[in-house]
Fold this sequence. Notes:
By secondary structure, the chain is mainly beta. It is built from one helix and twelve strands, in the order H-E-E-E-E-E-E-E-E-E-E-E-E. The chain has one helix at residues 5-14; strands at 50-59, 62-72, 77-88, 91-105, 112-122, 127-138, 143-154, 160-170, 175-184, 190-200, 204-213, 216-230. The chain has a twelve-stranded antiparallel β-barrel with strand order 1-2-3-4-5-6-7-8-9-10-11-12. The chain is globular and about 45 Å long. Mean pLDDT is 84; it is low at 1-12 and 14-32.
Amino acid sequence: MIWHQTLQRNLLRNTQLPALALGLLLAAPDAPAGRPLTVDDAGIADRGNCQLESWRETSGGKSAAWAMPACNFTGNWELALGAASLPADNGHRNAAVLQGKTVLRPVTDNGWGLGLVLARQAGEQAATSINLPVSLAWQGQDTLLHANLGAIRPQSARTAATWGLALERQLDELTGIGLERFGQRGGGATTQLGLRRAIVPGRLQLDASWGRKSDQPRATTWSLGLVWTGAPLQ
């Protein structure tokens, strides 16, 4: 999700929407990662594969909508360009995020992997971020633990450290569940529960999330998303 996800967390935080459904995406199509998690994993799509994640998030009577297509053109890097409609004083405003992600060490069954994510948000709240996701696998890859450590530098503020932890479990061939906690230095931490269900295995997924932020305990955030995966470049 990435997110990638650090920029989107900061973007929604500044619009008074906790960033709870922004675990952008960008895992291999056969791996249980991405939506609805915010914490990133150490995986990318296979060469020639693309993925489109879209979701709507609501919190405190305000809502935001995201669409995030991502493709692996070269085999080494996955590129994503996201667009969003976010709440503003006079209605809604648009935002865009450009992200690149690579794998430094692939995740193996009962092993671990390491990735690198670079992202840039353009527009009114321009910012740049870096994130290092680490993934640990058990029971093959049915159970995964993800840890993120990174930083975000808004155009008009100091650089802030970002972090995240997530545990996800594949319950059966179609259903997965995840629990995560993430935050940013100087801001409250967010706890989120996510559920995903394959509608067409390997092609179409429906997902949802529920979460709360530690400094806004009464503000509950919900999201509902849809993920399409395919290989249009092959």
